[in-house]
Write a structure and sequence with these properties.
- The chain is built from 7 helices and 5 strands, in the order αββββααααααβ.
- With 223 residues, it is an alpha+beta fold.
- The protein has 2 domains: 87 residues, Archaeosine Trna-guanine Transglycosylase, Chain: A, domain 4 (Roll); 114 residues, no CATH class.
- The protein has a 5-stranded antiparallel sheet, with helices on one face.
- A hairpin with an 8-residue loop joins strand 1 and strand 2.
Amino acid sequence: MLARVLAEEAAEFGVVLIERGREAGGGEQRFGIGTVARIEQLGALDDDIAVIARGGRRVEVVHWLDDDPHPMAVVRDLPDLEWDESLRPLREQAERVVRRAVARASEFVELPWDADAELSDDPVESSWQLAGIAPIGPLDELALLGSTSLAQLLSRLMDFTIGTGEAIASAFAEDDLDAELQAALDAESGGGEDRGADDGDGGDGDGSGGDAGEDPGPDVPGR
């Protein structure tokens, strides 16, 4: 697959999560939403090749093609999420929740990000960055990837982050939750009803993946 991707000017490939089965050997079932990643660096490590790729636009699989020999699919781009200044309080609340959760989780497990990780000044980009550093699982990340509005993304992000923080603390603490984390969860949960009003298809007006009559995009090699 790498040789085919590098032969293209853009050097891009699709990335999706496997729903069931193994990554190698064929026969696996894959989720239908993913990202297109662009290769930025290549390097040699003993008998392997190291690849650094950056995820970019979100895509939805229209249909899977026959493996050739790796997975191939026809995809279409999902629309970018749009920023509205009315979302700023929600965006700031989400940042507080995520940074607190990263700081707390790092006391129990090793994380790739610090609680004070620098974010972009762009509110949409930084919202996705918060989703990337939050200590949540791959299925939660997949749900965030399918968000149809920025309000939905931020609301889901807070809910998933609080839930994961609760589970981590429960697994490592003697009590279910210590007083500090419980107070933080109670404070954030108090705004749940307000967040819920933003969580849904209304959102900021984004579509859910394009019009039904939209022409599908190009074939993208997948993993």
